[in-house]
Amino acid sequence: MPKGRFVTFEGGEGAGKSTQVERLRQKLEERGILVVATREPGGSPRAERIRESLLSGEAKRFGPFAEALMFSAARMDHLDQTIRPALERGAFVLCDRFADSTRAYQGVLGEIDEGLVEELERTVVGQTRPDLTFILDVPADVGLERASDRRGGEGADRFEAEDRSFHDRLRQAFLAIAEREPERCAVINAGADVNTVANEIWQIVEQRLLGPSADAMVGEAHGG
After folding, report:
1. Could you tell me which of 135, 221, 128 has the C-alpha nearest to residue 182?
2. For 5-216, which CATH class?
3. Whole-prediction pTM value?
4. Which residue among 30, 38, 57, 138 is buried most deeply as judged by most CB within 10 Å?
């Protein structure tokens, strides 16, 4: 059975992650590749219930560390129920947000000790780490305008409602992650049109995960 691949999409609000997950899913399925598209927080029944609490802002009053614990609890269930079984079946797992979002939102912006965030990640994620992470980079004002258009007349969620400086810092946090781990991360200019972004993502997936040297490049990133 072919080895599964784990691809994550990260970035600020309105960066177009869910759109690009869907575009990549379609391209891979055209190649006859089994794909599981999922998201965080969420991706399994228990994790979806935690998502409701997190995005409603209900957990905000308990502080960033409590939020990080809730994200971690959701991630544990998501990994056990959805991600790891799919990888074992040889699927490409495409995830809209993963552990890098906890690093950026709760770690950098919530000012949780970096060592504590790393320990949480080691405990929860273990060896199931992404083979490839796309950082969809877009100026904060552009992303927030897109997010506003997307939700129509509905109110902003817990994170979209933060002020402009929060989102500027968030953008820099994701870029810093990409700079530290260039072998895993690829920064994409998400300010371009949807087709241009999708084509760039596909080229990178072909090069890193589908090409003749892909196995050597990826290694054993996500183990059991």
Report:
1. 135
2. alpha beta
3. 0.88
4. 138
| CA–CA gap between residue 189 and residue 165 (Å, rounded) | 20
Distance set, CA 207 to CA 48, 71, 109 (Å): 33, 32, 33
| Strand ordering across the sheet containing 185-189 | 35-39, 92-96, 5-11, 132-137, 185-189
Domain spans, the chain: 5-216
Give the residue from 44, 41, 64, 36 showing the smallest Cα distance to 53. 41
Q: How far is CA 187 from the centre of its chain?
A: 13
pLDDT tens profile 137-150:
999 888 778 777 77
Given a contact cutoff of 8 angstroms between Cβ atoms, the answer to whether 38 and 90 are in contact is no
The stretch 172-192 carries a mean pLDDT of 97
Phi-psi group of 187: left, alpha or beta (phi > 0 → left; psi -120 to 50 → alpha; rest → beta) = beta
Closest-CA residue to 197 (of 6, 11, 4): 11
pLDDT confidence band for 222 (50 / 70 / 90):
very low
- d(Cα 150, Cα 79) in Å, to the nearest integer? 28
The position carrying tokens 């504590």 is 116
Q: How far apart are CA 174 and CA 187, in angstroms?
A: 9
